[in-house]
Amino acid sequence: MKTTITILMGAALMTFFVIGCGGEPKGRGGARSDVQDAALKTYVAPGDLDEYYIFKSGGHSGQVYVYGIPSMRHLATIPVFTPYPATGYGFDKESKDMLGQFTWGDSHHPSLSETNGDYDGRWLFISDNANNRMARIDLRDFKTRQIFGPIPNVSGNHCSSFVTENTDYVLAGSRFSIPLPRGTYEKIEDYATKYKGVVAGIAVDPKSGTMSLGWEVLMPPFDYDLGDAGKGPSADWGFWTCYNSERATGKLEVTASQKDRDYVVAVNWKAAEKAIKEGKFKNLGGAKVIDPKDVEGVVYLLPAGKSPHGVDISPDGKYIIASGKLASITTVFSHEKMLTAIEKRDFTGNEDGIPVLNYDSVKEAEVNVGLGPLHTQFDDKGFAYTSLFVESAIAKWQLGTWEVVDKIPVSYNIGHLAAAEGDTKNPDGKYLIALNKLSHGRHLGVGPSQPESSQLIDISGEKMSLLYDAFTEPEPHYAQIVKADKLNPIEVYSKEENKHPKAIWDIKDSKIVRNGKNVEVSMIAVRSSFEPWKIEVNQGDKVSIYITNIEQTTDELHGFGLNEYNINIVVDPGETKTAEFVASKKGVYPFYCTNFCSALHQEMQGYLLVK
Amino acid sequence: MHKLLLGASPGNAGVLTGEIESSPFPACSPAFLRRLGGKGGWVAKGIIMQRYLELATSFFETPIDLRGRLLVILAAVVLMPAFFTPLWNLSLYSNQFPDGLELNIYSYKLEGGKSQNRDDLKEINSLNHYIGMRPLIEDDFTEFKWIPFVIGGVILLALRAVVLGKMSKLVDLFVLFTYFGAFSLWSFYHKLYVYGHELDPTAAVKVPPFTPPMFGHETMANFEVYSFPGAGSYFMAAVPLILLGAMWFSRRAEQVKTYKTQG
Fold it and tell me: ipTM of the assembly?
């Protein structure tokens, strides 16, 4: 009650302030909201918790950002493809090994694991467009637990990481076709014939989430852009869009925009699975690759509006919705009609042996959404929401009547959008987030390098209403919104679950063991000291320090920063991590706790002495 | 207590002056006594004393009746949960720990509150080390070794009293248990005293020696400390009361029997 009054007073004050300033809020223009309504709907009082998590891809930052909805507060950054000293990621041996040879990635499309077409809160997969990898974040501890790849034959893993209904597979594919296997040279003039794309399903172990190679399908040299897995009646299918069906090279913005139609690729992954089992594949670059020329019934092409971006499956699994970004319509295909056309062999041609289905036979509707449609999400009341890049707006339209019922301007140039559980079988409605590509300074100036804008939109009513602007570091592409109660992350690793062979729990067990030129240190970090605090080695020794944080209390993290050795490790309560380096520099180098821990944090320090 | 247990039985109010002749011990006959001490007052006093001892002896010889035996069994049963539930509970609240750090002391172990994200015992030790307090570890508590043993012994003694069915066994049990309870309390207080007084002189934060509260609430630095007996202590406290009940019932039954015999 008291809170409500405070909010009302706050909102009233804000209104007064706004009116006092001449009726127009201060700012740079663009979309506006009803201040009072928006304030009430987004205010999360101190100590209260948000209703939803949103996981935003961090684009070329290589990370994933976690925000709360509706407060739009940034809660955490999960490092995935890029070292992140804040959590020590990429500095300890364990995460360094996972990152391998790369120090960056382009994290594009996050995908929450599903059971029966609904988020189950177990894992988050995210694709790397730059180095053809796929990562899995465990939502138990919000840590990257596996980086799979580079995936053989996949080049520019953009049309990824959508999961099938029961997380059997995570989809992957090539945005940039190349001669296969990777490492092969062919003249660029032979692009149309000697370059190849693939679409792939990465198998996911249902218990551990561990990814491994599943199946791959050899594709013509198009640019595979986005995807989605089917659900319900279409659960056995995976879908991808492509541009550049012209098979062009060079200035693609022109050369790849000549044809009126590009394609939606439909792969029956059950058929692909079967083909692999029956041995109907060839080994290419270490992967089992199905060539559609040799195996029928695995892949088909649906002609879609020019240069489509998003392909999204309706919650009931009946419709395949593709948005041609250079068209002003969104095309709705019927899955049922697709199956009939396949059965009747209602084809209008083929591309490298892949049948092209008759557009008129598979099309259900063309929805006049507006300019530059990109991507579609769904709510709980039978509506779809399509982002319009060129128009800087979102169109709300009805499944079935195919009528646009509402439109809201966004600031500016929306790319993807994400609705609350909006790509599952049971979307929640309520909230929609516009992931805008350009913010045009709709925030305090921060110089030419600008943050991206994310706008929270209320979709609970008949009309969409803008609630909040939040700004994110570069650069979210897609995001997933999950009800907070589906996740129950831990804050402490229990002593029992620490299986690190070098973990120690008693200061008595801390030790330094020399074996030739190898020095192994078993170290304990606990408020507020390192044990041992003095490590003496010879120049050139290989030093491995196994640091166990023996705390068992939430937020008692300890850091291990080693001056001028470019090492900063952060060890969570109950965790053991390894600092591995060659003591190449002579002299005395202090190390200290980098992650604030206690009143005597400043005193938590020691020395590496290199003779 | 003595009045209640050793007092005259109903209808036997004149026991000290009256039916002395009926003494079962010939050596205590008045004639014999008279011969011994003449008319002196000390003899009377002696008689009283003698009579008292006789009564006490007869009290100790009183059989435990069925209700009494059932109560003793109950006492043994009540002791079992005392083994499994905490004897003492300490809670420490502060701004950082609004839900409180919990410490439960059992007869055989020390247990901190444990949740997915916190181990309270570890946390209490981590915080205490700043003032130089020794870590609370089970190995330092010899009590954990002998208390369960004593509880087991008491249960056995209770069953023995039930089988042998004599008041003296019950009195043994009562006295032993009361002594054991009092000693445990003292030992606990002593532990608290030692922990709060034997502080490491090299500690980062110097505080004057103190005794953590044994019963009630106290503010210590940034913590509000609450210390109260746990369920186990209540079970323990119930035992002597039940034993007294058993004694009282048995005594009553014996008195009623005597009264009936004498018509």
Answer: 0.71
